[in-house]
């Protein structure tokens, strides 16, 4: 926990109907298995129209994993969501750029999911830092200009793919969420001990 409140994680993708919804559902499931109730709050958002359901393939993929996302409705990425998040995990570099356009301070807390994994693995965990400070430390060497020029790993968009390709993409997202949850649990456990 950060102080007396839950750690707030925001998952972001283009339309908030596929990748961010699955990332949020998977991370919430993985983190609630390993942390105290209420320790983490997961939200998802996007940059498309509000109020739309997740795509059927995403609902089916999560259902096969025991997760029900059918009631989800897309919601816009807003300044208040971005400013309130301790960690913003996006699907693509473009989403990080759009998040930073909403709030320049959020640039230090926003990363693509695979970028977060690489940064967390390469930097280790800070037993003294709160989660927001730790997340910001993962991007402290990153500049906006370099970020736009250098390759950034992204989460492939499986929307519209054949079933086998969609499931393969979901397996990758699930694996990345497992790794992200492990890093977050390690950091949160380090703070509470």
Structure description:
The chain has 193 residues and is α/β, with parallel strands linked by helices. It has one domain (7-192): Response regulator (Rossmann fold, 3-Layer(aba) Sandwich). Helices cover 49% and strands 10% of the residues. It has helices spanning 19-34, 56-63, 79-84, 93-102, 113-123, 131-138, 144-149, 163-192; strands at 7-12, 40-45, 87-90, 110-112. The protein has a four-stranded parallel sheet, with helices on both faces. Helix 1 (19-34) links the parallel strand 1 and strand 2 (40-45). The model has no long low-confidence stretch (mean pLDDT 93).
CATH class: Alpha Beta
Q: Report the order of strands and helices.
A: EHEHHEHEHHHH
Strand percentage lies at 5-15%
Give the structural class.
alpha/beta
Number of strands: 4
- Read across the widest sheet, the strand sequence of neighbours is 2-1-3-4
Oligomer: single chain
Helix content: 40-55%
Q: How many distinct helices? A: 8
Major β-sheet profile: 4 strands, parallel
Cα-to-Cα separation, first versus last residue: 12 Å
Kindly provide the radius of gyration, computed on alpha-carbon positions and rounded to a whole number of angstroms: 16 Å
| Annotated CATH homologous superfamily | Response regulator
Total domain count = 1
Under the CATH scheme, which architecture would be assigned?
A: 3-Layer(aba) Sandwich
Shape: globular
Unreliable spans: none
The CATH topology label is Rossmann fold
Mean pLDDT across every amino acid position:
93
């Amino acid at each position: 926990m950060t102080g007396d409140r839950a750690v707030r994680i925001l998952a972001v993708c283009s339309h908030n109907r596929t990748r961010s919804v699955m990332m949020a559902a998977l991370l919430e499931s993985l983190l609630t298995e390993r942390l105290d109730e209420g320790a983490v709050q997961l939200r998802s958002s996007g940059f498309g129209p509000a109020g739309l359901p997740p795509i059927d393939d995403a609902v089916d993929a999560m259902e096969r994993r025991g997760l029900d996302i059918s009631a989800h409705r897309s919601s816009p990425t807003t300044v208040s969501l971005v400013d309130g998040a301790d960690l913003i995990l996006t699907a693509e570099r473009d989403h990080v750029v759009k998040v930073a356009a909403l709030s320049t301070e959020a640039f230090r807390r926003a990363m693509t999911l695979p970028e977060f994994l690489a940064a967390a693995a390469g930097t280790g965990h800070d037993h003294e830092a709160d989660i927001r400070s730790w997340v910001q430390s993962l991007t402290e060497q990153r500049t906006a200009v370099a970020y736009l020029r250098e390759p950034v790993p992204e989460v492939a968009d499986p929307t519209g793919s054949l079933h086998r390709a969609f499931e393969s993409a979901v397996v990758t997202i699930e694996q990345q969420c497992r790794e992200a949850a492990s890093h977050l649990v390690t950091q949160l456990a380090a703070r509470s001990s």
